[in-house]
Each structure stands twice: as C-alpha cells, then as structure tokens.
Amino acid sequence: MNTPPYRPDPTGGCPHAPNARLLAAGAVAPVVLPGEIEGMVVLGHDALRDFLSHPDVAKGPQHFTALTEGRIPDGWPLRTFATVPGMTTADGADHRRLRTLVSSAFTARRVEELRPRVETVTAGLLDGLAEAARAGDGVADLRRHYALPLPLGVICELLGVDPAHQDRLHHLSSLVVATDTEPARAVAANRELVELLGAIAAAKAAAPGDDLTSALIAARDEDGDRLSQPELIGTLLLMIIAGHETTLNLVTNAVRALCAHREQLALVLDGRADWADVVEETLRWDSPVSYFPFRYPTRDLTVDGTLIPRGTPVLAGYSAAGRDTKAHGPDADRFDITRAGTVKHLSLGHGPHYCLGAPLARMEAAIALEALFTRFPDLDLAVPEAELTRHSGFVGNSVRTLPVRPGD
C-alpha cells in the first residue's frame, strides 16, 4: 500500500519525529504544500548534498511549473521564497553577479573585524537579560532579550539601517517566513516590507554612508546591469531575514540543547570542548532551518531512486539530513559536541547557494553562547522543554519564546 504524501504542518511543530518516519522509507519523499501544491522533500544527507549541487537543479521561478501555470496565488505563504528577486532565486551568471556584489562584506577577514563589535553588543545584551530577569521574578525570554537583538543589530549595522526600524523589520520578516500567515496578511506584510526597504534605500541614496546598502546603491547607479531596483530591494530583504532569523534559531536551539544536556555544557565550560563545537553540533542536531524552499529540476530527475518531475518545487530537508543515521551513525539523534568536526552537516547549505553569511553566523553564535554561559553557568529553562511553543511554520525550526532563569 502506498504511503500518502507528507503534509508539513503550516502552523509548525517539531520536525524530528516526522523526519525519522520519512527517512525510514527513503531519502526523498512526496509532500503536499499549502494550497494542495504537490512537491517533494530531499531528506537524506547524501541525496541532499548531491541535489543541492546538481547542474540540472535551478532556483529561478520560471522553472516552477505551478507558478508559471498561474496556480500560485499572491497570498500563498511560500510565494516570497519562490519569487523575491535576488540571489536566492537566481541561477548561473545572474547568481554570480548578485553574490559578488555582497560577498566582500562576508569574507573571513571582514567578519573577524566585526568581532570586537559583536562582543561589545553581547555584553550589553547580557546586562539587559539580567535586568529583564530581575523585573520578571527571575525569568526572562532569552530569544527576545538576547538571541534576537544580537544578529538583528549586527546585520542592520552592516546595512546601515536605523535601529528604529529593527522591531518592525523583525515583525514583518516573521510574517513573511511563516507558513501559517493568512493570505491577505501575507500580502500586506510583503507590501509593507518592500515599502520599508524602499524607504531605507531612498534615504541611503540621499545620504550615503560607509555601509553595504550604500555600496549596493552605488553599484545600481553606476551600472544598471549590475543591480536593478527590484534586485536591490530583494537583496536587502534576503540579507535582513537570513542575516538574523537563522542565527536567532541557532542560538536558541543551542541553549535548549545545552540546558537539556548538562554533561555537554560541563565539557565546554571545563575547556574540554570548544564553543565552535557546540555551534556545529547544534547546526547538525537541531538545524535552525527545517525545510527550505525551493529548488526545481530543469528536467525529470531521479534522486536516490525516486523520480522528481521537471518543475516540481523541492524542499531541502536540512533538519532531517542532520539526523540521517546513514551519514552520522546509529546515534545521530544524540547531541554530542565531541563529534563536531568529524562529520560535515548541510545546515548552512551546499553548492553554489551555500550560505554567504555562514562565517558571521558561526562567530555570532559562538560569542553569544560563550558569553552567556560564562556569566550565567547555572542558566536553565524556566519551563519544561515539552511546554515550549514551537516556531510558526515548517521552514524555521525553533521555539517562539525561550523563558530562562539566568541565576545570579
């Protein structure tokens, strides 16, 4: 008897149990997306690695059959992922052109130059977390007071975005990436986000600064073939969303993992493991992104014995690949920071679309975790893990709030 296609829960939920069931049946599985759109998910580590770098797999929306046939409405919750102009929906020379425009801001040297600033911001946020806990009977939301403002503040500073816009940018970003946003609200959020980014770009055009947005505008004005206005706005949207949502989930998931595995926390506090090991094992064990949209085969493609028809929207199953026992051993579902470095994970992508901000995300997370547990070594969750409310949607993988007791 054929197993019915998997329907990812638009309202979210922990992905690991469904992933294990799907992986038991194979590395590739059919899915039904919101709106009864048929798609596929690649879950197995090796299959996903090969799929992400396959020459006959594209990201351009013109390859999305249901979209070109007019079956994807404006309010479809995943439409932005498929259609936003910029690196994530470009292929070949267009992708290389757009990536080159921003890649200089994320080299290892440029990221390392940001370290003192990240450390300063982190120290201030720890004071704020302690103050929030004192005001909250010893409990504070770690996401709101710590895991969110660090990466959001850093990416906005890189882009030259006024701090006054940060809360609204995060709110709108959350609506855009959620898969349970009501259609009319999704359309409105997308429109407002594009308008806000347009206003930010216009202000920078009038008064350029030493920031990435000003550099992108200069490239647009110097040569329209290098960057169009829609591509400029799409690039800003991508960098703001990807520049903070992923790291927010990464830090949140790492804190949850360490609180649930105190023996692992002891290893790193005692110097027997490194904070970078914590980051890498968290990326593997509880990827900040679960099912990332979209890629499309440009021809009928067989992946690990399963046919994926041309034009099918395919999700990258990062959270599943991280616990694939065929790649990571029979104990793949065990959080163990001593294994970090021995097995490569795919949680930051692979191939030409590998995450450009990976060095920055890794540095931010390592600094944030070391500073947090150095100052608050007894920090623990204020509610049981099972009572935490999961992230909205099946793209991001984390919880909505993380109440903690920092301790003295």
From TrEMBL:
Record-linked InterPro entries: Cyt_P450, Cyt_P450_B, Cyt_P450_sf
Concerning Pfam families, the annotation shows: p450 (PF00067)
Which family does the entry's similarity section mention?
Answer: Belongs to the cytochrome P450 family.
Its protein name is Cytochrome P450
UniProt source species: Streptomyces litmocidini
